[in-house]
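Dear colleague,

As promised, here are the two records you asked about, laid out in our usual form so they can be pasted straight into your sheet.

NAME FIELD: protein one
SEQUENCE, THEN STRUCTURE:
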Amino acid sequence: MPSSLTQQISAGYLLALGGFEYDGTTEISPLQASTDAATAADAMLAAGAAAAAVCGVHAPLNPSQELAFAQQLHAALQQRAPGLPVHITLSHKLSGRLGLLEREAAAAINASLAPLAAAVVPQYAAALQQLGLHVPLYITGNDGTLLSAAAAQEHPVLTFKSGPVNSVRGAAFLAGVGDALVCDIGGTTTDIGAVVWGMPRMCGAFVEVAGACTNFQMPDVTSFGLGGGSLVTWQQQQQQQQQGCSIGPLSVGADLARSCLVRGGSTATASDVAVLLHDRLPELADQPAAVAVPAGLLPSQQQLQVAWQAIQSRLAAGVDAAKQSAADVPLVVVGGAAGLCGDALPGVRCIIRPEHGDVANAVGAAIPQVAGTVDTLLLLSAATRQQQLDAVVEQAIAAAVEAGAEHSSCRVTELEEVPVAYGSAGATRVHVKVAGELQLQRPAAAAAATETSAAAAAAAVQEDVQVKASIDAAAAAAAAAAAAVAAHEHQLDHLDSLKDRQQQQTKQPPQPPPQQQTAQLLQQATQQTAALADLQSPRPSSSSSSSQAAPAEQPSLQQLQQYRPCISSQGLWEVSSLDLDAIAVGAQILGCGGGGSARHSRLKLEHAMSAAAAAAGGADSQQQRQTGDGQGCSAHQKTSAITGNTTSSSSSSSRQPKLKAPLIMSLKDLPDDAYVCDVGGMGAPTVSAEKLDSYECAAAVQALSAALPRPLTALLCAEVGGGNALEPLAVGMELGLPVVDADLMGRAFPELQMSTAAIAGVPLTPAAVADDKGNVLLMAAAASPNWPERVLRAACTEMGCSVGLASSPMTGTTAREVVVPGSLSLAWHIGMAVLTARAANADPVAAVLQLYGGSGRLLLRGKVVGVTRHTQEGFVRGSMRIAARQLQDIDSMSDISPSATGSAQQQQQQQQLAADGAGVADEQQLPAARWVEGEAAPGSSSSSGSSSSSVELVIDFQNENLVARHGSRIVGCVPDLICCLDSISGEAVATEDIRYGLHVSVLLLPAHPLLRTPAALQVVGPAAFGYDAEYHPVGPFPAGLCTVHGLYGVRA
């Protein structure tokens, strides 16, 4: 997490022994729960910490250690401070998706909010009782479903941005549309989101919250400071110019009725402009608007026109930022200040103003469903696979029913199967989410019991003065809301009739849900308030905390355009934090869905640079942007109370990097007799996302170097794709070696012999692998290039499916003949193009294509509607289906290989699936009735709601994307690069992160000429992966891109 966040919410951390290997059953080390929990409890009490987050390696596959530690921690705290409220967040309950750092960040943020939720949620319930509303309490979640009061209190982060989700769903419901943008204009802000096939469009695989990357779902919403109460100011000397007017972001907020001009106030607002110029928002003016404006404050017609145009420009820019293509879109405008939107906007096909749009948010809150989720690890077999999946679906249905859903309405909305690479045959992580309609009927006896206990709890709450004051305030606000509801009773009746017509439920009478224990929440209010007062004492501070780097803002467009990398007088590129950002973004795109997480490697490098700066006296620390996992150092510097056991604690404290920043050298500057080798990670990306590496790659390099006649001069990237592009930079920092601006693949490939060096006849051996336990294996020689792949891949499985690898030692003379030059520079250029496009609010996907100068192509923009995966020979193989709603999205796709059907590969995959029973051959085997209404089950040939022009692109992958097919045509294949990018951010989406519902853009980029030779095509062409197809290149490799050294290099 960034230091700016850890400084706000963290009182320290504990590294404890434990965790599981990739199979979910083998312990990395035994848990010492009682000892470590006692240490944590003492430190929490000493630091005044109000909550804790527990995160274990591979906890989604096996949560037993998290549960055991939480139990011991709770017991230790109660033993030391009886009656103290204990708030413990378990990471596996927040997200069942793999990704240790992302899950850890989500758990930490949730834990920091748990005390607040524990105080607030019971007061909501108490306010309902004060109003005589004896009903269960639900709170809207950020995925469009409802959370019980208890669930929202336990996991408050799941309510983030639920307001915009309500508006999007409510607006779509009122307008009767399935695909549109929704613009909700309130008193202070405007939120613009999209509804796609009836549901809010969600963000990509990872979402940043307070600068920390998390892996729970969030809506994709654009927000900016424009609302009915936004302040309007004019510059009198520039009345003739549009720039003479500013709108917001300051707002009068709830004081609009008293402050605005048309109500006799003295503040010009956006609502005044709409009323005075176009007689919009008439409810504000109870008399002729111009008459109500105080003398001398009435704006001129010219001023009003300038302000109106500024408002429309802000809205148009927001709509453009939320769009996924240049095509015009329908826009549904709702909210209390919907009148600020004119009758036409650029890029908008039509503007829809549904009846009751001012209460769209409330409507959206009233129609969400209740969800149940199950994440588990299964050993799927061909004989029992369907029964196993059915059992998981039933578990998810039971969870939804327990949360309050009607059983007969439950439908599967998400089903994800991720095979465990290198694991036991059929080992698969299964994620199922079920949603159903909220059941509103309750048995009379249960309702009476709830009311009785709630009354008793309310009486107890009244004894606490502070809580009573909060309850009275909440009750007053609720009473005002009730009055508003009564005024719109006819509107709600209309909504009921609309909902009755829309729902397609069975005729069976609904079954009552389990009774929510609202009274128990009421009883907690008094003790929570008192306990929070004791826990809110200041945390201990330390003078050493001042050495931590101050958080820096994201670079502006001007800063990006003016930035120049630093090339030393020795010709070495001294990599900065911004350079790392750019290389990481570009390398992930070049990874074609594989290569491991560049983001994790980026965090490790940032931490190493921070540690190097601190070791040098902190002179450079203020220049280093803390975006990584630096919480370990900062937490220890803030308080030394929390310490713990870790398998590498002694080594990590003593190993300081030899360089203060990574160094990259030009290939032409590499001496002829210098020795170089490639280095990177080997294994399953899903494993490395959980089981973070430390010094395995450095250990492999040292073992390989010891087998060479003289020391290494520099390092090489094995592949420029994904995290393996950054790993040599981290190893180089530690060992004091520069990295050559080149790699051996020009992208990412799944097997070792698919390197340009092996293709050219350079031996891969000697090669070394090292694991996290200290095991190192050296392979001195190999009979052929295929043998290192076979031997070392098997060793990788035994060593935990994640090892460091060093191979292909060669001289500088050989390297210049066989490597792909300028690879890191290419990644930097791509990353800078994406970052600059984001800063300019432009399309990052188009920016990447522009960089390639017409050599690349956009194949498709669409939504992932199906994913199948299976394991074969240690690789995750499968395919994804991406649907486009409009035919023009795919019109530009030409037939690269008319005779290539890919049928041989497809048949081979299906035969393998039937033979080993290790994967998903056809997801349509799930009961179709259980898929959410209005959508086809994954595996079907179409999606409900699609027009007849809907088309699909199918991408086959083996760790990396291999082939893109449109119908029977192959429209792109290896060695060219098939890249799936998030359509909004331009971030690459890895094959292990592809899931139903993601909105992606698929690019086809040209491979380097070294990968297009006849010899190379035998190893990395379509035939090498089982496709009976002829390779036709997408276009020439861009020759106009200069290396960073060539563009910015200066010699002393």
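NAME FIELD: protein two
SEQUENCE, THEN STRUCTURE:
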Amino acid sequence: MRSVLPHSPADLGNVKTALDEQSTAAPRRILAGWAAFSIDIETNPADGDRIFKIGAVRSDSDAVVSLSTGRVDPREVVRRVDDVARGSKLLVGHNLRRHDLPQLRRQYPTLGLLNLPILDTLELSAIAFPANPYHRLVKGYKLLSDSRNDPVKDARLALDLLGDEVDALVEMHHTDPDWLSLLHFLLRDESPLDGLLKTVRGNSAPDGAYAIAVAVNRFGDICCGTRLSRFAETDVKASADHRMALAYALGWIRVSGGSSVLPMWVHSAIPEVRTLIGELREHACGQAGCRYCREQHDPEGLLFTHFQKSSFRLTPAAADGTSLQRAIVVAGLGRKSLLAVLPTGGGKSICYQLPALVHYWRTGQLTVIVSPLQSLMKDQVDNLVAAGVNCAVTINGLLTPLERRAALDKIRLGDAGIVLVSPEQFRSRTFTEAIRMREIATWVFDEAHCLSKWGHDFRTDYLYVSRFIREHFSDRQVPVACFTATAKLEVIEDLCAHFHDGLGLKLERFLGGHERENLSYLVIPVSRAEKAQRIVELLRHELKDGGAAVIFCATRKTAQTMAELVTAAGTNCGCFHGGLQPELKKDVQQRFMQGELSVIAATNAFGMGVDKPDIRVVIHADIPGSLENYLQEAGRAGRDGDGARCVLLFDEQDVETQFRLSASSQLTKKDFDSLLGAIRSRVRRLKNPEIVVSAKELLADSEGSNIDIDAPDASTKVTTAIAWLERSGFLKRNENNSRVFPASLRVPTLEEAQRRIAAADLPEAKRQSYNAMVATLFRSLSPEGVSTDELMLDAGIPPEECFRIMHKLEELGILANDLGLTVRVSKGVKGASDIALRNLDRLERELLDLMTEHAPEAEAGGAAQHLSIRPICTELRRRLELPDSDPSVSPQVLRSCLRSLSDNFGSGTERRSMMQIRGVGPDTLRVTLHRPWSQIRTICELRRSVAQVLLARLLVELPAGARESSLIVECKARDLLDAIDDDIVLKGSVRDPATALESALLYMHENKVVELDKGRSVFRSAMTIKTDPVALKRRFAKDDFAPLHEFYRERTLQTHVMHEYARLGAEDPDQARDLVTAYFSWPRKRFVREYFKGRVDLLELATTDESFRRIVHDLQHPVQQALVEMPEQGNHLVLAGPGSGKTRVIVHRIAYLLRVRRVAPERIIALAFNRSAAIELRRRLVALVGDDARGVTVLTYHGMALRLTGTSLAVADRGEGTVDFSRLLQDAIDLLEGESDAFSDADERRDRLLQGYEYIFVDEYQDIDEQQYALVSALAGRRLTDPDAKLSIMAVGDDDQNIYSFKGASVEFIRRFQAEYEGSVTYLVENFRSTQNIIAAANHVIQRAGDRMKVDHPIRIDTRRATEAPGGRWTALDDDHNGKVRLIAAPADPNRQAQVVFDEIKRIRAADPELSLGDIAVLARTHRSLEPLRALCDIEGLRCEVLTREAARAQLALMQSREGWMMADLLRARKAGLVRIAAIRRWLKARLRRTPDNPYWDELDAAVAELAGVDDMTSVPAAEVSDTLYESATESRRTGHAGALKLMTAHGAKGLEFKHVIVMDCADWRWSGEDERRLLYVAMTRARETLTVMRAEGGRNPYLVDLGTVEGVVDLLPACRPEKRRDIARRYMTLGPGDVDIGFAGRIALSDQTHSRISGISWGTEIIVSGRQISTSHGGAVGRLAAKTEPRPMVTKGTATGILVRTRAQTAPEFQSGLKSDRWETVLVELVVESEELLPGG
């Protein structure tokens, strides 16, 4: 080996003489006598390391060389340098031998100084300062300088350092002369060092005998005696190179044992040093007489030394019966790579902590422990400190900048022997640089199952660590040690393969199983309602003698609830989950560990690694997701070795919760496609395969992803997706980009910078930060600038403060900020930046006004307000005077605007957001103020002003006449800061231009005004992603997704196994224990075969077998089951006959997707024809799958349009006019199809509006009209070419039931489905509703219809009832005709036919006395035909309800009624708050008790009940309740009272069914065209048990002519021919809003008695109409008929059917001048016109 300090060709004798002459001089004066020439050079790596500056000084004179070589002839350079060097006797420099000398020899080989003896201060540092070899150094080897590119100053610093080194050696001579003598002996052949040491010691180097004696005596206790005994034989006689290596080795050993480190340059330059340390300290000699090896290689002795434990654990035992823990420690001490599986509480930590401490003590090496949880890290460090170990540090995201800097300093300086680090930190440059300054002893992977895709807690960040080791530490073969408590065979094999393939390491296996003898396991079956009480009881029993407990919960909400309930029961219980603030989590954990809290309710964020010895019971309130998790969490109990219990409270529904939680964390192939698309787009735009982007920015750019950008786990999902894309070869994610700040220094020295800072009169804290930053900048090695990671490490400055401090330093003239920005702007096109900013300005102003009105008293940090998106959008459009559903104010735009209000703003301690925004469901946001309203307004106003100035400055850079949607502007940050400074208004109001610039740029970026590219990372932490251009051209294929899919399948299996364990545990604990043993010891296939025999298919399903049975098997119909279990993707049309279960199919198919395929509910839309159908569909869905149904979008077409356009009926109804639903639908269609101005890029519009939707279900497809068809088409993406952008659609309909052609519905749309959607068709023709007789009659009517789609698929009774009597149960009840369909020839006159119908009703009731009137429906073609029957029912006292569009109740929308307004006023009073559903219902019930027959209160109560049933919320935002009521008010309830006979038209009966149906025929059916045939068919098929059809005498109904010939139909005549009755010849005349003067009371002063008379009227009050006047029964006027309404010639009685509320805002402008009230009421009436007015001669 070549000597590191070789002899120089110079005359060394002269040097020795000089040194000898100076032997009595003061140490610091020695240098002058040496005539040392200190030199330093500056080189340019980008130019072949060309030397561009040379600086040199002499120790014996003031002579200086300061030379810029750029334009100087090389010969002149040599001459000038040698002139100053002439007479020098020693060449001095820092890192001279490895850096400066090679370059000088290469570029100036004729320099005379190259022949001088050499003394390198870097090499001497490790000898002079063994405890701190980085004295005066940065980066491990570079001199600590206060200037940049100043080689003269650095040359002086090298002399100063040499002086320090001489001082240190002199001090060493005084304190440890024997060691300095030995050092002199070892270095005696290195002439300059020999002379230096001779001068310091005042003596020549000692002889070998003395050196041997010193070595044995000095190091005998801390090194191997056997190895030291060879000192005389080998080391004394060895080469100078060997003795030099020995000097470094012994020098470090002398101070080892903590707070010391051997620099990495020593290891790389002199590899023999490491070998010698190993021989002296690590290798056991095996000699009994060696005291060191006897003590330091005895595992038990080491255990006692470091942990005061006398012996290792006996259990679990190794194969030979000895302690497995000891065997693992021995392997670790022997530097073996290993995999250890030990049960929880089995002493796992000791297995790697003890070897780590020993390696640190012996060799100074660092053990890196990769740990998944921050709580686990803190726990381990606390335990080590308690054991007296102070050399452990943690590096994780919870540390403050100062804590992080301190931890990294400990690593760099050798004060740390153990570092516990979270896996994501391996992408941090500062962490990488810190550990690269250390030798690594072992890479330890705690909870190593996180590395395996077969593990229950697989984490992709863990995989990067092995790549990191391979890329950064490939030159050193370092062992890996993996530890886990829960690893089945597949995990073990996966881990071993991972490290064999990735690092070439073979892991020795130490398998200790999972069992712990001191724990008892108990499974208790309980219902959800019983859990809290059982937990309280368990805690009282188990903790009666003291100790602690942990309650594990599946969700954060449950953990919070349990903590509250247990505390309320008298036991102090804390709550711990991932959503808590770091400080609070730390506090809760500390209080629990110290015993202040005896119980803690926690999610699994608390599970792994928590080590509190006295936990007596672990209770699982919910079933965990896997057996591994269960054992990990249960293993927190009994860590002290005493008995403890592990109790699982088992509720079958909890398993579904686990499946749902697991599914919610999963990524879909669509997520990968959208994120990959965003990466491609960014690469294409920037024309660079390497991009820097944050997770949230990438998500914001993606189109169609299911990841909610506002969700807490959004960033985690994105980084996980990036990791899988990396595995598939699309890209490489490198170290996190940490915001590089290019900065040119404007002052020559650090002193000058500090002087300017001192003169600025800054607060002390700021002054320190500024000084720290300039010091870091002066020391920076990079010509590109300094990163925030470096600033945080070196200066302790938080990243978000860096840009602002740099700006202030620029103002002080200390530096120039050269940060470059690239901004994309639009000009002269749709969505131009200037127009977008102007619109944003107006929107934000009005939004803040509106929010202030909602919560004027809101205070910073006070109660949250709740904003419902659609009401806010609608009100904003009104205030901005925009049309209804104008897309420039959409939910997406509003959310972006609000999000920009939640960004942090300000600097230093004042940096915080204006408000916190959180989503609460799809349409509501929860807002909590962080600043007062006045401050928010001021900040926003200022931010908008700055944005306008910046945008104007950017637009100036564009060429004149430029018109494009994406124009690039390159500029410097300085230019934009100047623009702010040049604005007269802003100059006086902006205190911190840098903060204003940051805020305004991000504000415009996030609101789509501009797009910020280069430079964006200044304001946001980001990932560095390097893409593969070739791979990027291909799609993310199924094969790429397959490994992740396999991982998700494994998680599903794990949950099934946990379910099976719980089930067995509740029945037979021994079988449950056997299952656990088999799970961890058997191969996977054998385990599945044994424990899931006959149920293997179930393991593919993310639901329980019970749930699968309810969803699929309970259908008991092969066609329906096939439809439900169809492949996830694809389009399908279901042609379903009446009563065939089509709604059931939709419900079960959605349930199958939710439960079995675990499709997120937010990805499903179901469209129903009316609100009643939507509510019924959702009700059934909730009943089938419970909470899993929450989040499925079930809407009517109008409801969908309202959501897409952000329109609120509640707000619109308070303004002028009503919502034009036709226009609303068209606006929604335009938005989806890109015909709107809402988006500048048409390609983004669907993905923004339908983010996440993948499935659409359409009920009653045959009834859609052209607009509804267009909406469905746009939602499904029928016209799109990209198949991934299309939704899968299932449409269900029946062409035979198309009855709304008069409203534009066309059967053509259902006929075109197969061709347009390339879908398959299934026929559902088994009727589950009606009897065989009814089916036969209905088939006879419809079979002759033209162009039927089911012509070859006639409706038939379902298979299960095929053997029943054709008349069903009425075969026995109906003595006359055994349940046949009754076709009765009746008078066409409604008066007389009503009597026949009435008799039929009496007949049915007589046959079945238990029958409720509500089970009978009478259907007619027109409303008028029902009036005589209604009159007859009234006379006979038979309760009936008319449920038709013409009915009195249908004339008044619910929320326009007095009752609706009272409800709305109540809700508006809550403004942005929450309302309790139970409280609203109590309020409504109280009013119902006072007026039990009032239908308005009844309908309001029903609507609120539906909301409660659908959303399962106790408290709901008031605006959300209001919107629900307004939407439900667009349709009257069709169900009516359960005890009332139903009278309705055939059209109105669509979608309903009744036990008994009577169809009237008053010759009013239109017997032309197929519509009437289909209408009659619909009417007949509403019947379940009996059907009676009237046939008008003399009528020409072609569909009934031969109906009597059908088997199962009986043709009858009335029992007696009725006569016309005068008493039932009534007319019920409804006076709706269009029939009365709705402004009547508004034109009367409020003081007039008219208003008080109206207020005294309620539903059902008697009313008189005479002429045009509407009066009370006492004659007081309360209204007038409208001008178009015929006056009543006679006094006509009636009843009030509702009170309409009107306002000035709802009145047309031309009528407002006559108004004297802002709000008034109008009485609506139903008149009863008696026979005297109707019959001749009456």
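A couple of things worth noting about protein two: Residues 1038-1067 form the longest helix (30 residues). The CA atoms of residues 896 and 1006 lie 7 Å apart.

Best,
R.
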